[in-house]
Every structure is written in structure tokens, then in C-alpha cells.
Specification:
EC number: 6.1.1.19
Shape: globular
Strand content: 5-15%
Organism: Triatoma infestans
Catalytic activity: tRNA(Arg) + L-arginine + ATP = L-arginyl-tRNA(Arg) + AMP + diphosphate
CATH topology: Isoleucyl-tRNA Synthetase, Domain 1
Radius of gyration: 15 Å
GO molecular function, one term: arginine-tRNA ligase activity
Largest sheet: 2 strands, antiparallel
GO biological process, one term: arginyl-tRNA aminoacylation
């Protein structure tokens, strides 16, 4: 993939993450409140993989501070986008009625994992001097 396509791919992943909470009709305030009450379980392999990648954030920043190579941040963003795509394909955050489209269940733990991914991705884009998108 070219650099331009990778950037679009990573921005698209962030936009998809942000759309999940919107589709669930969950506000940022509700997500913040949920962090006080709900634990994020990582029972599925794809949840576990995404969580492990997100936990690398501090180490990635330290690596950049030490060697001044910002491309590490781009590689990290790509890893998040790829892990999120696999997570999104395998783990439902919102369950809807197939006939009516009404929301049957919202998996708040998974939404919180999505929110963590979005926050880290936004910080990475900011550090790279890129403006992130919400829609």
C-alpha cells in the first residue's frame, strides 16, 4: 500500500470506531460514566489482540523519544487499524433486530475498548500533525 492509501485506511478505521457509539446512541458522557462501572473483558481473541496493541502506546512513545523516528507511530497506527478491523468483523458491539433495525443489546465493554482505540488513534494523529475525522 502507498502512504496515501495507508493514511486513508487509518482515518477510515477511526471514523468507523466513532460511528459505532453514534449508531448505539451512546454519548461521550455515557461512555465516561460507563468506565466507572463496567470492566472491559477481553474474552475473544480479537478483543485480546486489540487490547494488547493499545497497551503498547507508552512504549511506542518512549521509542520515538529515544530514536526520534516518527515512522514508529505510523506503524503503530496501522497495527491499531488492522487489529480494530479484525475485532470489528468478529465481535459485535451492537446487536440489532434484523427486521426492525432496533437495538437489542449494546456491549458496553466492547464500546469502551473502541473508545480507547479511538482516543489513542486521535493522539497519534495529533502527534503526527494530522487532523482526524469524526464522520
Amino acid at each position: 500500500m502507498t502512504k496515501e492509501i495507508l493514511t486513508v485506511y487509518m482515518l477510515y478505521a477511526l471514523t468507523r470506531i466513532r460511528s459505532i457509539a453514534r449508531n448505539a446512541k451512546i454519548t461521550t458522557t455515557q461512555l465516561k460514566e460507563a468506565t466507572k462501572e463496567i470492566k472491559v473483558s477481553v474474552e475473544h481473541d480479537k478483543e485480546w489482540n486489540l487490547a494488547k496493541i493499545l497497551l503498547r502506546f507508552n512504549d511506542e512513545l518512549k521509542k520515538i523519544v529515544n530514536d526520534l523516528h516518527c515512522h514508529h507511530l505510523c506503524e503503530f497506527l496501522y497495527d491499531i487499524a488492522t487489529a480494530f478491523t479484525e475485532f470489528y468483523d468478529a465481535c459485535y458491539c451492537i446487536e440489532k433486530d434484523s427486521k426492525t433495525g432496533n437495538i437489542l443489546k449494546v456491549h458496553m465493554g466492547r464500546l469502551l475498548l473502541c473508545e480507547a482505540a479511538a482516543m489513542i488513534m486521535e493522539k497519534c494523529f495529533y502527534l503526527l500533525g494530522l487532523k482526524s475525522l469524526t464522520r
